[in-house]
Amino acid sequence: MTGSSRQPLLGPIQKLLLVAVALGLAVTLLLVRGGLESESPMEQLARRSLEPETALSNGRPTVIEFYADWCQACREMAPAMLELEKATRNRLDVVLVNVDNPRWQDLIDRYDVNGIPQLDLFGPDGQVRGRSIGVRQPSELQSIGEALIRDDPLPALRGMGQGTISNLRPDKTMDTAVTTAGPRSHG
Fold first, then answer.
1. Which of 121, 129, 143, 187 has the fewest Cβ atoms within 10 angstroms?
2. What residues contact 177, with CB distance under 8 A and at least 6 apart?
3. Catalytic residue status for 21
């Protein structure tokens, strides 16, 4: 027998079936990953986030969240942070700073980040108004945002300090890094 008389490995029906299975797996994977808009709330916030220096100097109150991609508490709070950002757009800046990015080491040191999520809260003049450490519920984030926008006293919540952050080291400039314990050492 010659090579031309051999049967093809896959017939037309098997090829069609294989294509259908591959398409089904692709659609399933797309749906499992969140559809076409597969960015998580944290990724959306990080992508839309202003530079911290811009936010602190544009005349709007600012919330800077120090976070990490691996932080379950940060991921848990991200949908509420995204909702806060959307609800207060052009009235309140929500800025995300990833503690694992060496680019932000100066801010991590300056604001003495020792645990995440950490929210540092600033008035429209860029001055520190307070700090919140730990997960915040959507209603708490809304109250914090409204207080900052109205320039009212911050709500009295567990894990939140008001006024000047005592651990803030104003003598450190944005480009001076000091090696201190970081968020991972307290996690």
1. 187
2. 105, 106, 109
3. no
| pLDDT, tens digit, 9 for 90 and up, residues 13-61 | 888 888 888 888 888 776 665 555 558 888 998 899 999 999 999 999 9
Helix (H, G, I), strand (E, B) or coil at 104: helix
Residue 133: strand pairing partners: 118
Which amino acid appears at position 23 of this protein?
L
Bond prior to 153 in cis (omega within 30° of 0): no
Dihedral (Cα; 165, 167, 170, 174), 10-degree rounding: -100
* Catalytic residue list contains 136: no
- β 128-133/160-162 pair status: antiparallel
Name the catalytic one among 46, 56, 71, 119.
Answer: 71
Q: 9-16 long-range contacts, Cβ below 8 Å, gap at least 24?
A: none
Structure tokens given for 32: 């499992």
Bridge partners of 66? 97, 118
Spatial separation of the C-alpha atoms in residues 15 and 35, rounded to whole Å? 27
Considering the candidates 74, 80, 94, 107, report the single residue annotated as catalytic. Answer: 74
CA torsion angle 153 149 83 97 (round to 10): -80
Question: 100: which DSSP letter?
Answer: T
